[in-house]
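During the second half of the funding period, the structural biology subgroup turned its attention to how the target accommodates small molecules. The most pressing case was aspartic acid, which had performed well in the primary screen but for which no bound structure existed. We therefore specified the complex as follows and requested a full 3D prediction, including the ligand pose.
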Amino acid sequence: MSNKKPNILLVYTGGTIGMVKDFKTGTLKTFNFNNLLKRIPELELLDCDINTVSLEEPIDSSNINPTYWVKISEIIEQHYDYFDGFVVLHGSDTMSYTASALSFMLENLKKPVVFTGAQLPIGDLRTDARENLITSIQVASLQENDAPLIQEVCLYFENKLYRGNRTTKINAENFQAFKSFNYPELAESGVHLKVNEKYLWRSKTDAPFKLHKNLDTNIALIKLYPGISEAVISSILKTPNLKAVILETFGAGNSSTASWFINLLSTAIENGIHIINVTQCLGGSVIMGHYETSNQLKRIGVISGNDITTEAALGKLMFLLGKDVSDNQFKMRFETPICGELT
Ligand code: ASP
């Protein structure tokens, strides 16, 4: 066994964790990342070496988009061989989207990429940033037989480590801001750090790490609601260059059976637009054909999202569309798990 300390790279992208209050306006804005490390001297006590890198202009994560996903994953790619683990500091608002997208982009990942952030800025007396950051670094440093124990993109927040592409932000107020409804926690931090090893992702291949940067954003997200009009659905389906739609349906994947609705979807599918059925429910799964109200969706060729989150479905769609998967392979590819995002 080697005595070398794990080498961890902290990637700062922005978010509350590194924000300060503007005294004049009272609003939170981003500040220089170097100050963040000065504010947590405890980092020196951790049993690992820490290096830091920051986006040139840190952002509030509500401004995130696929261009930033590429930037963050390029930082990981450039440093992949020199570090044992990565901790990405990111605003909590869209953290689940970024963690989900990166889980597809970073193929054959054999090292941890742990996303974390905070509900209160690091300078606040009651901040949750300190614990989130310190434990995330510890998680990223875990080793077994000289290899990283965690080998996937995950998200650590308020004592829990989750698979990143299974998470959803569920609370804008509580420190417990995230949840993974359809997959168990990977680890829990109490007096001891307990890792649920049987739930950890293990790639089945020895193929080298590969970054996929081509993401296709020609997609739309439609959340169904009682009373949604034909005009709304039809105008979205007429979006130029549209290639796929995530349909957020009711319960176990159910929708209206109105003929105008089914006909619009059916025509879109005939025209090569992929329609993905993802439930609006936070937990549970789409089972097309279980109710009469999803039978027609199944019949016209809607793709099942099974128990995927909307966040992961968006990332997976952009990733698969960016890979030019053929039309007759697309349904099978979407319904097959890539990195533990669906059961
Ligand atoms: N608005 C902030 C962001 O997502 C909130 C946070 O950091 O938690 O960047």
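Two results from this model are relevant to the next phase. The chain has a mean pLDDT of 93. Residues 7-211 form a domain with the Rossmann fold fold (CATH 3.40.50.1170).
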